[in-house]
Amino acid sequence: MRLQRLTQAATLLLFLFLLTFAAHPLEEGVPFDLLLRLDPLICLGTLVTCREALWFLLPGLIVLSSALVLGRWFCGHVCPMGTTLDMAEVPIRSGLRLSAKDAPYDGGNSGRSWKYLGLAAILGAALGGISLVHLGSPLSLVTRLYGIVVYPIVNLVGDGALAWLGPWLSRLGFHGPAGMTIPQRVFAANFFVAVLFVCLAMLAYKQPRFWCRNLCPAGALFALCSRSPLIRRNVSESCTRCGRCVRACPTGAIGSDPTSTAHSECIVCLRCVEICPESAISFDTGPRGEAVSLPAPDPTRRGILAAVAAGLTTAGLLRTGIRQPRAWTKERAFTDPELIRPPGALPEPQFLERCVRCGECMKACPTNTLQPVWLKAGLEGLFTPVITPRLAACAVHCNVCGKVCPTGAIRDLPLVEKQHAKVGTAWIIRQNCLVWEQDKRCLVCDEVCPYKAISFQKVPDRVSAVPFVIENRCLGCGWCETRCPVAGASAIRVNIIGELRLVSGSYRAKAEEYGLVFQEKEPTPRVPTPDALRLPEPSPRTTPDTETPEPGTEGLPPGFISK
């Protein structure tokens, strides 16, 4: 097996390992976002958009600078996107052969400038304060593929296999798998992501590694730094010009003359070294024999300026859209009330500047509440994560989303800080509520609320006590909404009223300053105690009597709290 295949397999397995185990409870000290931070496009695009130095993105700059020595080795040996496309192209390209005209570098060079234009457009938008990194970052794209497309399908297949094999294994004496299930995950936009990757793979009918050759903006960054790398392909005088290396090169980096090489397009796969019958090819530090360097693709100055202008224009259009989060001439930005960001998310403008839409937080979320958003946040917010309370709630004792975010769009908060990061406030739709509308007894929202934020009180014309939300106790976690027994739209919903989002500083201190009180309920003891065996005293939760008002709330209408 070739060295490249070994390194590709190792890095893909590492990538899948980090992605799979980026879940709650998170193993401390493991850099689950490591490969994402190695992407130079994520690094450079985020730095330009944010206009601040983010030290944790330094690995991307180190990898980019390594191209000065090793060329585009990252594309050929490390990038999971390239490895995935290589695997997808095996059945597509089986039986297909490049023509003698299209195989060499000087025969299939027409689309190589597109990746430079894409890079210029992304950087142009970044100069305008808009991040379009998610459209071209290979690590962001491939993480999205495996996280919200492949991972749920693997869970589904695995659960079906357990259900089918369980009875057979029980007959053989293995009773453990019979009762096992694999939790299922569902994601919005997964079909769209799958179709995108099918289209990228199908481009192999045109050229091998079409994405890497012609479209990848990160590849363009590497190409700019590897036009004359220190370690490069060299051909000795023993070359017979048989052309085997020309036809085997996956990126077409070798010219019609096998001694010539476009180093900016070479991904150092070493395939030419392995198939050369004369052992005339090597990768070393100096020119030798008849080695010739071919010029890199050179997009026109007019094309580059047009791409930068297109990026700036896109930034201008998004910044003047109605859903843009920066209030310019209006008193406040227009925001969807159900655009509930994960706890610890930066304020919306900074969040959109940093978020690269990789989907790592969505895959890692233990309750599956984080989902990619479509147009609820406008085009600028496409694929960003939102909490979907009707689907699932935010786990109280989980802070994994901030720990796996590679760019700090979601702050890495200690658990005590995360439990004070208010994401919204629940409110009751009385015409949907079984108690308010039909005068039925229902205590579900109170029973599942972790912070005692639901108060049941007597009101006229109702036999049963009705629920009210105590706003300064509500964290917005969504347990009440996801467990509400009403079919369809929940009778209690969370919106962004009262959300707390800080660039820096303590959420706990800010919550205390605002008078927010998030006190968890006492856990029910698993071992019965003498007190637990006693019959409980009648309480407002089980009788229609009026609940004892909170201190300082005497004289206020039902549902109101003192400030």
Architecture blueprint of SSEs:
Elements: H1 3-20, H2 34-37, H3 40-50, H4 58-70, H5 73-77, H6 80-93, H7 114-127, H8 138-171, H9 190-202, H10 210-215, H11 217-225, E1 232-235, H12 244-248, E2 260-261, H13 271-275, E3 281-284, E4 292-293, H14 301-319, H15 348-354, H16 360-364, E5 370-372, E6 385-387, H17 400-404, H18 415-418, E7 425-428, H19 434-438, H20 444-448, E8 454-457, E9 466-469, H21 479-483, E10 492-495, H22 507-513, H23 530-533
Helix pairs in contact: 3-4, 3-7, 4-11, 6-8, 7-11, 7-14, 8-9
Give a brief rundown of this model.
Helices cover 39% and strands 6% of the residues.
| Class based on secondary structure composition and strand pairing | mainly alpha
Note the total helix count: 23
The biggest beta sheet, please?
A: 2 strands, antiparallel
Given as residue ranges, the uncertain stretches (5+ residues, pLDDT < 50) are 525-549, 551-563
Q: State the strand order across the main sheet.
A: 1-3
User: Could you state the oligomeric state of the chains shown?
Assistant: single chain
Form type: elongated
Task: Report on the architecture of this protein.
The protein is mostly helical and 563 residues long. The chain has two domains: 3-293, no CATH class; 425-495 and 522-563, Alpha-Beta Plaits (2-Layer Sandwich). Helices cover 39% and strands 6% of the residues. The strands form five sheets. It has a two-stranded antiparallel sheet with strand order 1-3. The chain has a two-stranded parallel ribbon with strand order 2-4.
